[in-house]
Amino acid sequence: MTATKSASNGDLGGASAGKLPGRGRRVRGCLRANLLVLLTVSGVAAGVALGLAVRRPGGLSAAEVQLFSFPGELLLRLLKMIILPLVVCSLVAGAASLDPAVLGRLGGWAMLFFLLTTLLASSIGVGMAFAIQPGAGAADPSLAKYGDQDGVPGRKEVVDSFLDLVRNIFPSNLVTAAFRSYATVYEEDKKQNNTGLVSVAEFMNETESTNKAVLMEPVGKEVEGMNILGLVVFAIVFGIALRKLGPEGENLIKFFNSFNEATMILVSWIMWYAPLGIMFLVAGKIVEMEDVVLLFTSLGKYICCCLVGHAIHGLLVLPGIYFVLTRRNPYRFLWGIFTPLATAFGTSSSSATLPLMMKCVEENNGVSKHISRFILPIGATVNMDGAALFQCVAAVFIAQLNNVSLNFIQVITILITATASSVGAAGIPAGGVLTLAIILEAISLPTKEISLILAVDWLVDRTCTVLNVEGDAFGAGLLQVYSEKKMGQTGNDDLLEVKTEAVAASKAEGVEEGSPLIKQNGPAHLEANKSCEKESVM
Ligand code: ASP
Questions:
Q1: What is the span of the domain harbouring residue 478?
Q2: How far is residue 339's CA from residue 276's CA, in Å, rounded to a whole number?
Q3: Which one of 5, 272, 420, 479 counts the least CB within 10 Å of its CB?
Q4: pLDDT tens column, 242-295
Q5: Residue range 129-187, pLDDT digits in tens
Q6: pLDDT at site 23
Q7: Residue having the nearest C-alpha atom to atom 3 of ligand 1
Q8: Alpha carbon of residue 120 to chain centroid
């Protein structure tokens, strides 16, 4: 199949189409340029229609649902397969190609942007929950049916959660970090309980109907799920070390670079499968869904708070910040990343969306590879505006359900812990619900109410993930503009500083733009744009 690289592009294709005479050709050119986005939009709409058509009273059997969801599951598997090589190779190559001072400045600005926008999102969440009062007067018996404790994280101290975060930053085994993370869990201390010793009150099992006290002790465990934070940190530090090695390290840098480029080619192939996969992911969820009307009547206000909050932050606040700082059209930027946003909606996973996001910000929004491949993996791991927002709504909602009126200090505690715990949330479906327990523990609210949040998380998590990845993309877009401005002032883009030997070698070999090892003479985004216009054989 032959397709233009700019097929997912919102503007570049239009430019090339403009050269062709005739209105019909222009329209055709425009359609071709936006083909992937149009296919994705159609995929989402067709998924909703297909799901509603296949849905039947009494529901499909588990085997039927599994079969029906198969094409969607395939997309998820393909995206997950790419995450590990993509994150590690892009960060090693990115960190190795930048001067540590530049790296620090770039990372510093990105972290500041991520922190401020997450705090803003948390404030919107708290504000929405106080305005709409989703839990007020809700001693509603209809909520009781969602009281299933399956999937609710066990109780643990706030300090344990933060220590686990730090432990995960330093994985003890890199191979296990590729599929397992560290977590502290509390288990019954059988030895002490047998002696009949008196309990420690805070670890009393809440579900216990009797007053019998049980002694609990913290136990460190390896749990399922990639420790992406540890891998991100290792890859950055390893990249810096490679750079320090000088000429000796260059072969390895080239290796990671080539690995990265090859992975991105795989991504461009997977991209064409995304519309079909998203269609079946959406349809599969609609088929599986229980009674939505009932869910909305009991928890509608909570859902509304989260969705409206996500819409405000994603459609007004983030675009507003981007516009104020760059004077560029933020909605055009959003159009350029429509396919990854739809993928985030379909998969509920920032990590799975990362490969497509990298491809689209580079090709459609002119973000240089140096920036996107360094900032986006970090953003997908630590920046979760959507998660922080919904966690704040959930915390205030649960307080209202329990008739706890929150004071100023508790509100500030919610804002700070939500911002911090969103860093620890994994970019996987329901990753934010697991860290919600930290906030509830911090303001002494019962964690068992998380079961209510879980009941509607399949929906809230989708808009939450869209917002999570949108924040990362805007961060990369802002850094791109910052680096262009800096280059305009100094006539030298220090972000693009590279090793001279590698440059010479790649120039001699006629390697294309794209490698962080290769010095670019023009503005980075123009170089990136050029690559969008090239034809590629799929
Ligand atoms: N699903 C979200 C993500 O992948 C995490 C969350 O549950 O908040 O970004």
A1: 34-143+225-489
A2: 12
A3: 272
A4: 989 888 988 999 999 999 999 999 999 998 999 999 999 989 888 887 766 766
A5: 999 988 876 555 555 555 555 566 666 777 888 888 899 999 999 999 999 999 888 88
A6: 79
A7: 427
A8: 17
Core vs surface per residue 104-125: b (16+ CB within 10 A) or e: ebbbebbbebbeebbbbbbbbb
Q: Measured in angstroms, how far is the CA atom of residue 382 from the centroid of ligand 1?
A: 11
For the CA of 434, the nearest atom of ligand 1: 7
Q: Are 421 and 392 in contact (CB under 8 A)?
A: no
Q: Give pLDDT tens digits for 376-416.
A: 999 999 999 999 999 999 999 999 988 888 999 999 999 99
The DSSP H or E segment spanning 537 is: strand 535-537
d(CA 104, CA 499) in angstroms, rounded, equals 18
In testing the pocket of ligand 1, which one of 461, 470, 472 has its CB within 8 Å of the most ligand atoms? Answer: 461
* Alpha carbon of 67 to ligand 1 centroid (Å): 25
As for ligand 1, residues whose beta carbon falls within 6 Å of it are: 348-350, 384, 387, 425, 427-432, 461, 464-465, 468
Task: Give 184's strand partners.
Answer: 220
Are 457 and 332 in contact by the 8 Å Cβ rule? The answer is no
Q: Answer whether residue 400 is part of any domain.
A: yes
- Please state the domain count of the chain: 1
Q: Which two tokens stand for residue 489?
A: 């002032």
Q: Which of 76, 341, 384, 436 to mutate to test the pocket of ligand 1 (most atoms within 8 A of CB)?
A: 384
- Residue 147: DSSP 8-state: -
Q: Where are the beta strands (DSSP E) in 176-305?
A: 180-188, 216-224
Which of 76, 80, 349 has most ligand 1 atoms within 8 Å of its beta carbon, as the pocket-test mutant? 349
Specify the CATH number for the domain of residue 471.
1.10.3860.10
Residue of the CA atom closest to atom 8 of ligand 1? 432
CA of 387 to the centre of ligand 1 (A): 6
Q: Say what angle helices 408-424 and 385-401 make with each other, to 10 degrees.
A: 140
Ligand 1 nearest atom to the CA of residue 380, by list position:
9
Tokens 């969103």 belong to which residue? Answer: 422
Residue 316 gets which letter from DSSP?
Answer: I
Whether the CB-CB separation of 326 and 481 falls below 8 Å is answered with: yes
Cα of 453 from ligand 1 centre, angstroms:
14
Q: Which atom of ligand 1 is nearest to the CA of 349?
A: 4
Residue at 22 is within a domain: no
Is the residue at 503 inside a domain? Answer: no
Residue 2 lies in a domain: no
19: CA distance to ligand 1 center in Å? 43
| 147: alpha, beta or left? (left if phi > 0; alpha if psi -120 to 50) | alpha
Q: In one letter, which amino acid is 272?
A: W
* Secondary structure letter of residue 154 according to DSSP: P
Helix (H), strand (E) at residue 302:
helix 292-312
Q: Which of 350, 357, 340, 359 is nearest to 268 (CA)?
A: 359
**How far apart are the C-alpha atoms of 487 and 482, rounded to whole Å?**
9
